[in-house]
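Morning. Coffee machine broken again, so started the prediction first thing and wrote up yesterday's gels while waiting. Chain of 296 residues, entered below exactly as on the submission form.
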Amino acid sequence: MILIYARTFLETYRTGSVTKAADALGITQPAASAHIKGLETSIGKPLFLREGRGLKPTPIADDLASSLSSPLDDAERVLNSAKVRSPLIEGTVHIAGPGEFIQFMAAKVMIGLLPLGISLRLKTGKRDFVIDQIEKGETDLAILASDYKNKSVHSKVIYTEKLIPVATPEWAARNLSKPYMPELLIGKPLIAYSENLPLIELYFKTLCDTVIQESAAVTVPDLRIVLQFVLRGAGYSILPDYICTEELQRGSLINLYDHKDNPLNKLYLVWPKLNLRDPRVVFVKDHLLTQFLQEN
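Came back before lunch.
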């Protein structure tokens, strides 16, 4: 019984709501409240204080959550790993992430799931969209191009991309003088993913210790379209290696500054901890992690 109370407490602690915890655990709200009350009676101290529409954990709750989190999550993973070894993994898994990475890198890894009777429902979008899918519980797994710090989720690096400054040889010849250096790109027509230029800023901060102040000539939230603008001579961009590998090999694009210190950016597989109760999700998560490790 105490284990059931502990799981309800931990889910309430993570979500900040007895109602959300009850929904996640598949129990009624009165039952979840009774579990919390029973645990408080057992330890003789209050665990939560009501604050507005939510609950504020007490220092005792913080200590208890820290002590319980790993053991309970580990036990749940062990149980679900045992379930995965059964044939009951057929069904649908929802995955959200950036369309470019799914197209160029993840699709070839995901294909191996289809013969096993697993159907995939993929949603693509920018980081805010993917995080919204996670927080609303509308995706089982997610891929993000930067880590997502949230106590209700786990994440693991699945790919490390190298950021490469690229342009067509013709554009470089017209707009830059040799040797090509990162500083020469500042003020030139830039094709970017978004207005806030996260990859561009990382690149120039790493190599030039410079904060970019300029606006892009073109912004479009799809790196595949950014690539097309660059290929047509509209300007330069800073792209992940997997987006432009073929074009660099063919010579339709050139690496403007091939340096050992070119910055790296990590991509993460993310999953809500509660989703590990589903052996199908555990199986797909483990498959993706294993395959990406082998591929990279």
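The chain has three domains: 2-84, 91-151+278-295, 161-265. Going to sketch it on the whiteboard this afternoon.
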